[in-house]
Description:
The chain is an alpha+beta fold. The chain is built from four helices and eight strands; from the N terminus they run αββαββββαββα. The protein has an eight-stranded antiparallel β-sheet with strand order 1-2-8-7-6-5-4-3, covered by helices on one side. The protein is globular.
Amino acid sequence: xxxxxxxxxxxxxxxxxxxxxxxxxxxxxxxxxxxxxxxxxxxxxxxxxxxxxxxxxxxxxxxxxxxxxxxxxxxxxxxxxxxxxxxxxxxxxxxxxxxxxxxxxxxxxxxxxxxxxxxxxxxxxxxxxxxxxxxxxxxxxxxxxxxxxxxxxxxxxxxxxxxxxxxxxxx
Length: 171
């Protein structure tokens, strides 16, 4: 492949990432730490409104039912991020801390992390910026030895990276 063709393929991908950054801060067999940051042209208030309605922005491929419309979030301490569908339900997370319009913290072992017995804290922070808002996802996960969390980190990094992009973009 010529340099020019490589540049044509890589350039669109770089444009997608100019307004967001993702990082697997640390990982091992028993833990991982992730951080995602993205800019939105929407106001902090509008991003918060979207955040507390995950059915509007969470990708349906990352639900048990295959339909993000089944997701609900009660954004109060003790409230649940849950998914209910005919014949089943799951609690994805429990709200631990809320500062309306600014911070949402959940104990949230999504997907296969539940089956591993992982303990996961996901903190979502929204701050105003000159052009709208900045959103940060910080996630800390711990699991028993043998859990291969360094491999899980890659998958969760992908899912949360997709999620923050959808949240800030209005998808």
